[in-house]
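Tokenised fold entry reproduced for absentees:

. . .
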Amino acid sequence: MSDLAAEQSGPYVPYPPPPPFEPSTTPGQSPRGDTGFARLAMVTIDCADPVALASFYGELLGWETRHVDENFAILDNPEGGSPLGFGRVAGYRPEPWTEPDGSKHFHLDFYVDDLEESTAKALALGATEAGYQHGRTLKVLIDPAGHPFGLAPLE
């Protein structure tokens, strides 16, 4: 991925509009049979440097940048799912989830074809290996902003 700042184009659009909502024949239910009335627009990750973190995840996932500025960046999901956003937070500090008095606020898990190769690639992009590991089938890494994420083989 080239420099994210150079990829900014067009007006800021926080997320794509969802497909048209089709009313259900059953009151309170969508055509999919669920009872929800909202759809996920985007997951936004807080950080100190949105450009750098979007670059990291863009390379990790192979996703393209839709928007970037010094305070916010968006990566589009090429499979049509929700995009990932990255927002600057003044005074941002990484989550101390591996410390006795800390916890993680969220984490992302990704399927990979080859766990060892994918771990090496993520480390080369700037991730670090977490001291605590959940087991042999999930590798816990820390992104450059301090958020934990997992890599798991797709089997």
Observations:
- The first strand starts at residue 43 and ends at 47.
- The chain has two domains: 1-92, 93-155.
